[in-house]
Structure prediction request, 678 residues.
Amino acid sequence: MPLDLPLAGIRIVDLGWLTAGAASSALLCDLGAEVMKLEGPGAVDPFRNWDGAKDGTDWWNQSPWFAFTNRGKRSVCLDLKDPRGKEALLRLLGTADVMVENYRRGVLAQWGLDAATLRKKFPRLIIASISSQGEDGPDRDMVSFGSTLEATGGMAALTGSGEAPVITGRDVNYPDQVVCLFASGAIVAALLERDRTGEGAHLDLSQRELTTFLLGEELIAAAAGNPSPRLGNADPLEPADRVVPDGQGGWRAEWPGGSAPVRDGAALAASEDFARGTALLRSPDGKPAKGIPFRLSSRPLAIRGNCRRLGEDNHAVLAEAGLTPEEITALEEAGVLATAPRRGVVA
Amino acid sequence: MVAPSVAPLAGRRVLDLGALCAQRPHGLAASLAARLCASYGAEVVRPVPEGGEPLAQAAPLLPGGGSALDRFLNLGKHAGTATGHFDVAIGDGEALAAHASEVPVKARISVFGPGEDGPMSELGLLALSGLLGIVGEAEGPPARLAGHQAAYAAGLAACTGILAALRAGGEEVVDVSLLDVATWLNWKVAAGVLVLGSSPVRGGARADWYTVPAKDGHVALVYQEKDWPGLRRAVGDPRLDDARFDTASGRRKHRADFLAILGPWFAARTRAEVTSAAQANRVPVGPVKWPAELLTDAQNQARGFLGPDGTPALPISWNGRRVTPETAHAA
Prediction:
């Protein structure tokens, strides 16, 4: 019998979108937390839109990309712009340990749900705000995607084997991926701190700062007057590293003492090490799902649930938050609680 | 009165075996994980081999002697031996077996998973995970991510696993595969194959984000389809109203003509001017900045992110305050 998972009993209200927010809470879900993903009928996670969506169907429940990241979470669809929806969220937060959000800065404050107000109301709550630039500063409202932050965070300048600095682009958006590894840890650290002090916290996580932090030595070298140039494909510690054509139209990585093929997706997916690894796993229904970036030997980790339909857990979650069946029905009738987005066609 | 410092790992002792790992990626990953533990308030002890600290002469070097890498990764740690009580030990399988058999929580870094530790470099990890192949200009070779991303990302994962294990209590081994972490970051490529039967490739159909030369450096041209009208407004050249440029595939197909219009507009302006015009239209374009420029960057200064010697704070503000090893140990 495996031991209890590390976050057993922890309840998380997940206002995380796309990867940076939603995959951070997915990892906490894998560690045993109960995650309640909360979307609005006027604002569903953009991952629900996908190329294969067809009008006239419940396209919002069909996106493989959404399911990939949000498997194992419960789903609530509640309109936070409506005061009744906001009130229901506050009731839910009264039963929660953690709230994760990566809305555009200022959106939650507009609804009276800013971190300072929530901290005062729920002193034990941990609020993790994941944003591009952080909660304050002159660039707070700068619009950025992950690759923008590679540019503004110092990474693009040092990446690239030719004349131009290189960004990872739409298929990687590196800062959106790597922040999940850090943010999930910071949230567990805040739970440890709460165990120690009894106090919740507001965690203000800037993806741009994380991008720069992961080049920390380059900042120190630059401050000392010895900035590094762009090194191309050489390792700062191993100048002999190189990437060479493999003679068959592909590329090969070479370093002193070894070499490896530069895999594309097909080669990766066909490899035995990938099949044995944990980067991609399957949810209980057999669908491919975002994996777990480590293993625990005493407490085996797995994807414990499928992706739920939008709003599938509306009743159960709000009942747990103390709403009566009549209150829940009234929210449904008002369209504040829903199981479909308001717009009927794919964006 | 000064509020007490945040120190979730106060009172915990962490054994950093990063200097004793047989391979460099493992050593860097372990060192970063232990560095994060120090920032969270743990007392971190780092034994070094007979020859001394392996990072002492590692690039990038400091003009006055010493290594910036050493300074960054070992901040807040103490040199010492692997004796006494520890709550956590971090290293490769061999170092943990030799020095940490009694430590209740172990983070074990490997290449492929427990016990699978063939010779590997960070470049090799990026190559095998697909993270090397997907990055770079279409016409050029694959481009390695700057710095030590493969190792550092594994260090971040290890730290999260350690924190979870400490919260759970009791004995635990957190196994972190360097390759699994790199592949996890690159999920879109692998998932593309499993979900759609094909995966994105470097320079493929979605490769319309790249850097463009401006007057004083480069700008990252980053935008989605919904941002195209805004970008067109920002540039304000009627030639961009041509139907050939209405869609992403059209702009890709006619990239040379597209850049013939866009390029000179970027080249005639500074990075700040281009960014300002794009941002005014809510287009997520941004300047490519060098690390040296980040030292005086207004956002970093306003948030107190970089120390006087360039050392970045832990990238988190906790109830409006920075978390640093110094403040943590002062708690």
Summary: Residues 124 and 200 of chain A are 4 Å apart (CA to CA).
